[in-house]
Amino acid sequence: MALSAFFHILILVGSLSIFIVTPSYSFNPRKLVNVTSYYSPDSDWSPSVATWYGSPDGDGSEGGACGYENAVGQSPFSSLISAGSPAIYDSGKGCGSCYEVRCTGNSACSGNPVRVVITDECAGCGSDAEYHFDLSGTSFGSMAISGQDQELRNAGKINMEHRRVECNYAGRSIAFHVDSGSNHEYFATLIEYEEGDGDLNKVEVKEALDSSSWDAMQQSWGAVWKFDKGAPLHAPFSIRLTTLASGKTIVAENVIPAGWKPGQTYRSIVNF
């Protein structure tokens, strides 16, 4: 009996030793992280309000606060544009930014996302919701079930969801439309079709006679940036762009040629 009890004690001690030295997967920190990490593809959508302006199948306004003029009705914008409340327009910093919007507040809503570009300001929007998209008639109708676009537009104002997305202009390079008020001492340009972030935080210009010095341009209004030197300018100009959202930088070398003219558009060979 004594010998049998002794062997029982040895077995018990051995079992306890195995439990102590063998890691228990129930308390593995990595396992806990894996269990608690969860991703939903819909988690980045935020609530917002939508209205529409302009003609039912139109491009909203060609005199928008970003300065894109009639380009909003042409490819690649193709009338899929929107004015934004102050939180979206951001004093012009939001010009060129891209969003997906999807309709949720009406029986005519398809629920499918539509990509739009911010090209205008809705200064009177924002009292009902911080994020208010005043869409073109084309954009608003594009959120509807096929054949019910007019029914959706008849609602006038709906609840919807939005999320910020990258801009993609199918390989189109950045363009610079020289403002009509530019002269030999003052240079201003509208900047269009920035892929990726779409918006700009900083724009700099470098003259031909200075191969190392970059001068900061100031945002004039909307997507128009200016450089008022107060002395003769020397083309060609290179322009360096830095995005607002991610801080990426790109250079359009000698994009504004010698002999440039106000009102002309000059296309670079680069994009983000």
Written description of the protein model:
The protein is α+β, with helices and mostly antiparallel strands and 272 residues long. The protein is built from 5 helices and 15 strands. It has helices spanning 2-21, 29-36, 86-89, 137-142, 149-155, and strands spanning 46-53, 81-84, 98-103, 114-121, 132-136, 158-165, 175-178, 186-192, 200-206, 215-216, 218-221, 224-228, 237-243, 249-256, 265-267. It has a 6-stranded mixed barrel. Strands 11-12-8-7-15 form a 5-stranded antiparallel sheet, with no helix packed on it. A 4-stranded antiparallel sheet has the order 10-9-13-14, with no helix packed on it. The longest helix is centred in the N-terminal third of the chain and has 20 residues, at 2-21. It is elongated, with a radius of gyration of 29 Å. Residues 1-41 have low confidence and may be disordered.
Q: Topology of this structure?
A:
Layout: H1 2-21, H2 29-36, E1 46-53, E2 81-84, H3 86-89, E3 98-103, E4 114-121, E5 132-136, H4 137-142, H5 149-155, E6 158-165, E7 175-178, E8 186-192, E9 200-206, E10 215-216, E11 218-221, E12 224-228, E13 237-243, E14 249-256, E15 265-267
Parallel strand pairs: 1-5, 2-4
Antiparallel strand pairs: 1-6, 2-5, 3-4, 3-6, 7-8, 7-15, 8-12, 9-10, 9-13, 11-12, 13-14
Percent helix, as a range, is: 10-25%
Order of helices and strands: HHEEHEEEHHEEEEEEEEEE
Major beta sheet, specifics? 6 strands, mixed, barrel
- For the secondary structure, the number of strands is 15
- Fraction in beta strands: 25-35%
SS content category: alpha+beta
Overall 3D shape: elongated
- What is the strand arrangement across the widest sheet? 1-5-2-4-3-6
Residue stretches low in confidence (pLDDT < 50, at least 5 long) are 1-41
Overall mean pLDDT: 87
**What is the rounded distance between the termini?**
84 Å
What is the alpha-carbon Rg in Å? Answer: 29 Å
What's the number of helices?
5
